[in-house]
Amino acid sequence: MSFSSSPRGLEALQARHGGRYPWLVLAAMACGMVTAVLSATIFNVAIPALMADFHLGQDRVQWAVTGYMAAMTVAMLPTAWLIERYSFRRVFLGAVLLIGIGSLGGTMAWNFPSVVAMRIVQGLAAGLLQPMSTLLVLRLFPLERQGRAMGILGFGIILAPAVAPIAGGFLVDHFGWRAIFLITVPGSLAALAAGHLLLPHKPPARAEHPFDWTGLSLLTLAILSLLQTVGSLHAHGLLSPQSGIGALVATAGIALFLRHARRVPGPILALGLFSERAFAMGTLVSFIFGVGLYGSTYLVPVFLQSILGYNAATAGLALLPGGIALALMTPGAGYLADRIRPHRQTALGLLLFAISFVLLALLAGISLCLPLLPTLMGTVVIGRIGLALILPALNLGALRPLAQRLVGQGSALLNCTRQLGGTLGISLGAVYVEWRSNHLGQPAGSAQAFAEVFALVALAFFLALGGALSMGKPATAATAAGR
Fold this sequence. Notes:
0% strand; MFS_dom; Growth Hormone, Chain: A; globular; mainly alpha; transport; disordered C terminus
């Protein structure tokens, strides 16, 4: 962000708005982020309507979801370079404009490929916006207020997925699937207006290094291969030749990128990021956090319906207290992150979430004998409190020790690994449950399969505790020197 003294520069805007300025900019960013999150989460309720309208099967309609996820994940990578080259303001306004274009284009889609194309446009915008929110907090807020800012930003981001299924269902039922694209238009317009008024002008700068197209291509190859492999596990199986080839291509892409990054002066992701222990451990924890966040969002509702026999409405109602607890706790967790060391808060959140899944595993083991809904609701609340504690503290603990020039790339990578963890959490959880259910037999086998996968998630979070605690160790001399 610019510190220019021009009438539209940062100093002038700060003088005009006083102490409110950082919070006003945070509100503008939150508006854009909530719009992006809505574009991601509201679409799922329209899948049955799209299948009926375009006469598609589940295998083809999922391209709209996969295309969005792939575009979002890949778009996170060049965010830091784009901000350095074109300024925070231009990238933010451009990303919000892309969401609006994708939304309006989706309402006018004439066939299913055009729907997929507009979802990819929305995904690109969402991928650019996600790392920017953390970067904004670290650059604009003093150290003692960063946790509170992250908590407030997280509240809006968490609230959007809770509202999206309800709002989306109403729109699809009354106006058809095209209406779900329109719900993001008001937020896009509001974010454009707020960003135009509040974000400081900065002339385009000459980037220190040319854009690393080779590095982006190699990482894109690895990410797309991984997403495709994981997304096709249902159809092909974990040990199929297709899965093996996909895993091999993904591994080769990462290996080639590492080789490339050591030889060029400005790779899209600097390997020096991992010389800082806090960031390296934070990346691991972010991956496992994504596994738990997205995996639990998928596994728990399926368990409630397929094993306990509840309908979709009851399953949603059972998860409501957990969603409320998550939303209410996140601002307080941000406030807490300003008062205790972030790695300790992250570890506490991981411990609570792991305990909740241990309890879920025990409940799944006796689910065919006892009515468990009230106890299960309380267990989910414990896990959601844990997630709320992790959300604002993890980014702060991982990114604060980095040299300033690496913070943008670090934020992009943390978001990317969380998204990849979520994709793996959903797909591998579903494949494991299906495999074990078939192996053990119905219906007791299915309950046992869920108990086992809940226990595996808990184990992953217990293992992540060590990584979170390692984040609190002193910064290395290399990173402190800004190498």
